[in-house]
Amino acid sequence: MTDENKHYIRQRNAGALPWEIEPETRELEEHPVFVQQQVKQVSLEGARVQPLPEDFAPSRGILEYLQAHQGIPLDFIATQLIDFKLYWHETGEARKAWQNKFKSHVIYQWKRNQSETGQRPHRSTAEKLTDRSWDDDFRFDDGDE
Questions:
Q1: Domain count, the chain
Q2: 96 or 36, greater pLDDT
Q3: C-alpha span between 4 and 8 (Å, rounded)
Q4: Rounded Cα–Cα distance for residues 91 and 128 (Å)
Q5: Nearest to 70 by CA among 111, 121, 100
Q6: What is the pLDDT of residue 129?
Q7: Any domain includes 46
Q8: Domain span at 102
Q9: pTM for the full predicted model
């Protein structure tokens, strides 16, 4: 991969649109890991594309949604916040909907955790299609009784 391709990919990950990327003209550049890159803020339809803020915290609305509608406990959400922040700070990618990204991450990890711990039994498609448990207590009313 050429340096020009790497420059293009870094700019796209930072939120720049293809037509906004200037060709790299610098002769000597320090390695991107050791240099704090300037991330260009791009405004698209009112939302700002930006890296995950250092002080990111899920909104109260997201926390209430995860608890009420998904049944996810707060202690699980807190552990996911740590992992989420570590990952996205390391990648440095820019996004515009961090609250929604966090919500999706927590829901995905919760479902994954539930299936791994066996709290939701996994059934094959054949088992689901041939399940007759719904008729265990089903009785026809003949009118004879």
A1: 2
A2: 96
A3: 6
A4: 40
A5: 111
A6: 83
A7: no
A8: 51-125
A9: 0.51
